[in-house]
């Protein structure tokens, strides 16, 4: 995945152009504040490929006018969709979500995981399917249960 970097204030000032550029190029645009990654514009395909769901939507004009609130919402609540004439175009995500998306793996956002000897579940009791996931601490590999289900390889 290719990434470009630009100061957040410059992105805000040319938001319509930057949104369309990210959508057309498929590249991530990392936004910086004082030289540090703050957030990123990513394609909707990148967002959905990782299993992350948007939690808000903003039109380009509203996003530009309420830029600080939009960036805060992306950091505190989760991915925010930016629309163009009512059509979802890209998502603004936190710097941490951008890092996880860059790994190209499904994102596991569970705060807590449990293993009962047979399966791994999240804090809400949802079963974590076998696979490789990206999460805040790194990468998690969840193996498929062995054939007899006792947790021991034969």
Chart the SSEs and their pairings.
Layout (H helix, E strand, L loop, with lengths): L2 E5 H6 L1 H11 L2 E6 L2 E8 H6 L6 E4 H6 L1 H10 L3 E5 L2 E8 H8 L10 E3 L4 E3 L8 E5 L2 E5 L12
Keywords: Plasmid
InterPro entries: YefM-like_sf (IPR036165)
Family: Belongs to the phD/YefM antitoxin family.
* Separation, N- and C-terminal Cα atoms: 40 Å
SS elements, strand count: 10
Give the proportion of residues in helices: 25-40%
Number of domains: 2
Q: State the CATH topology of the largest domain.
A: YefM-like fold
Uncertain stretches = none
The CATH architecture of the largest domain would be 3-Layer(aba) Sandwich
| Tally of individual helices | 6
CATH class of the largest domain: Alpha Beta
Largest sheet: 6 strands, mixed
- Categorize the overall geometry: elongated
């Amino acid at each position: 995945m290719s990434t470009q970097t630009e100061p957040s204030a410059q992105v805000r000032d040319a938001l319509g152009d930057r949104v369309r550029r990210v959508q057309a190029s498929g590249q991530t645009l990392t936004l910086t504040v004082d030289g540090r990654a703050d957030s990123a514009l990513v394609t909707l395909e990148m967002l959905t490929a990782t299993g992350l769901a948007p939690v808000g939507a903003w039109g380009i004009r509203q996003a530009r006018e309420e830029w600080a609130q939009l960036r805060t919402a992306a950091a505190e609540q989760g991915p925010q969709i930016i629309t163009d004439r009512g059509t979802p175009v890209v998502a603004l995500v936190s710097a941490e979500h951008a890092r996880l998306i860059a790994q190209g793996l499904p994102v596991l956002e569970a705060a807590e995981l449990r293993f009962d000897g047979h399966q791994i579940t999240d804090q809400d009791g949802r079963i974590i399917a076998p696979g490789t996931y990206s999460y805040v601490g790194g990468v998690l590999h969840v193996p498929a249960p062995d054939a007899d289900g006792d947790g021991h390889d034969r």
